[in-house]
Amino acid sequence: MSIVIKNLTHVYSPKTPFERIALDDVTFTINDGDYFGIIGHTGSGKSTLISHLNGLIKLTKGSINVNGIDLGKKYDYKKLRSEVGMVFQYPEYQLFDETVESDVSFGPRNMGLSEDEIKDRAAWAIKLVGLNYDKIKNRSPFELSGGQMRRVALAGVLAMRPKVLVLDEPTAGLDPRGKKEILDLTLKIKEQGPTIIMISHNMDEIAAYCNRIAVLGAGKLEGVFSPSELFGQSEIIERLGLALPTPALIAKKLRDRGVSVTASDMDGLVQAVLSAKGGNYA
Amino acid sequence: MRDVSMGQYYPTKSPVHKMDARAKLVFVILYIVMLFLVPSLDNYLGGGGRLGEYMVKSGLSFGVVTLFLLVAIIFSKVPLMKVLKSVKAVVYLVIITAVIMLLFYSGKANHVYATWGIITISLEGIVSAIVMAVRLFLLVMGPALLSLTTTPVELTDGIESLLSPLKLIKIPVHDIAIIMSIALRLIPTMIEETDKITNAQKARLAEFDDGNVFKKAKAMIPVLVPLLTSSFRRADELAYAMDSRCYGGAKNRTRMRVMRLSYRDAIALVVIAAVFFAVLTFVYDYFGVATFISEWAYTLL
To answer: How far is B197 from chain A (nearest CA, A)?
Structure first.
């Protein structure tokens, strides 16, 4: 069970003056259980890439296989979309129903589940995102706070119990505390099973949460790395003009001053600094 | 949806694109007037005209208008297919109307080919159906060329400028124009927003193409509600943004793009005046041109 993408190419508005190559011959694999990060500048093709994964953009060139579903052939849309849950940027703007519970039930209801199952799943999802189910279920989603609305929207996708959860900048527009809460929530969700794919511009988030990271630049895949590979070397990051995560930046500044340390996350940095100092600090 | 986010406008450099928007607007109005100078067959026969003459007159008139449109399209460097595509929206309407006209022509018919009950096929029916179809197609294509060669902003500026005399009778032309340009500006944004919300709901397995009309309408609710709330939010934000930059309406406001008529507009005016005069000549039979040609056609038959 994995997502295999081979030679994926996508062109917007082909054969018009607006023609634009969004993805150019992209090949990589996302393994089951990954917390997979996708980084790249605005317009580098990240959103186009993830929209392919649940068939919102039709595959035109190349091949994609999601958990055994070949997107090049005729396939069951409903099955694919309930396997790949998609949380877009600012998901709170997609809330529409009268109550939180019925909004969260929208996905499961479209899946054609029984009423009991729908209710179970809605309750489970609302609790999973850290909201008080009994208190919130009958309220209108429009009278909640921004952070609560985002959680409800997330619950709406989780209620479909996807095997792959795609998050497009889940922390955009939140304050630092809200960001941390949402990210920790993703770890809690991951314990429930799904593979997580996250797009983010925040390198600290990517470095701290992802185990593998794909770097896109102008529609081309620059490579797939582990956080230590990517942020330890910092050449690729600099070449693409992306920022380093804070720990890697500190490590780089230390290297520049002659202290030999490499690190991509805080714990790694602390360890590296301590061992560079030469003492035994337990 | 992404394909329409720029509206109809076809960006290229051509003499038609460079023309003054006000001139283009006036010319399109003249163009439409021309199309309606040709009377309907019913009226023409009622006025004591002959069918053969009518065919010659309308044929010549529409011929010269079509020729003019083709020349304009060639000069605009817009692919012909783009202009023809604009007809797509009305093509079924026109065909259905034409067929109904052909089968149930109600006027005086002297050349009847066949009758079944209330259905009558006559030469008069065929001619008036063709005239109606041609007129409607030309009617759609002319303004389409305008919107293909003029940006929405230029268009509203042009409309504002053309309507400015109405300021004398205290009609807030500038405000109307700013409302129009904001509306036009927000169309691509709304389309993008609709696209995003539709995708988000599709990801939650919403179906938009299933079932009958009522089911389809109900399926739109998950898109319409978020779209509406976000439009209100956007409108508020825009109002604050304009307020904070001291927008105060038309008074003492200068323009970034000042519109100027140029030699291109003069040339176009001469051409369209000539075409207009040609149509008048054919329809009202100045200098006996139409009579001459129809006599000649009769001798051929």
So the answer is: 6
Q: How many CB atoms lie within 10 A of CB A230?
A: 30
Tell me whether residues B226 and A82 touch, CB distance under 8 A: no
- Whole-model pTM: value is 0.71
Closest CA to B150 of B296, B20, B294: B20
CA dist list (Å): A125 to A115, A152, A227, B204: 15, 9, 30, 14
A25, A60 contact by CB (below 8 A): no
A17 touches chain B (CB under 8 A): yes
Eight-class DSSP state of B147: H
Domain boundaries, chain B: 21-149+262-300, 161-244
| Residue B151 touches partner A, C-beta closer than 8 Å | no
- Best mutation target among A20, A50, A96, A161 (most B Cβ atoms within 10 Å) is A96
For the stretch A193-215, pLDDT in tens is 889 999 988 888 888 889 999 99
Under an 8 A CB cutoff, do A81 and B207 touch?
Answer: no
The one-letter amino acid code at B60 reads: L
Task: Determine whether the interchain pair A81/B199 forms a contact, defined as Cβ–Cβ distance below 8 Å.
Answer: no
Q: What letters, b where the CB count within 10 A reaches 16 and e where it falls short, cover A6-33?
A: eebebbeeeeeeeeebbbbebebebeee
CB distance B133 to B114 below 8 Å: no
**Is-contact B41 B59, C-beta < 8 A?**
no
- Residue A11, φ and ψ in degrees, nearest 5: -120, 125
Say if CB A163 and CB A193 are below 8 A apart. yes
Query: Can you read off the two tokens belonging to residue B5?
Result: 């986010």
Q: Write out pLDDT tens, residues B154-210.
A: 888 898 889 989 888 988 888 888 888 888 778 878 888 998 999 999 999 888 877
Both tokens assigned to A250: 């500190």
Query: Interior CA angle at A202 toward A200 and A205, to 5°?
Result: 90
Q: Return the exposure string of A109-129: e unless at least 16 CB atoms fall within 10 Å of the residue's CB, then b.
A: bbbebeeeebeebbbbbbebb
Distances, alpha carbon B134 to alpha carbons B14, B26, B79, B87, B276, in Å: 27, 22, 20, 11, 17
d(CA B32, CA B279): 12
CB nearest B225 (choices: A96, A110, A157)? A96
CB–CB of B204 and A110 under 8 A? yes
Q: Can you spell out the DSSP letters for B74-91?
A: HHHT--HHHHHHTTHHHH
DSSP notation for B22-35: HHHHHHHHHHHHHH
Is A85 in Cβ contact with B197 (below 8 Å)? no
State the Cα–Cα distance between residues B235 and B72, nearest whole angstrom: 39
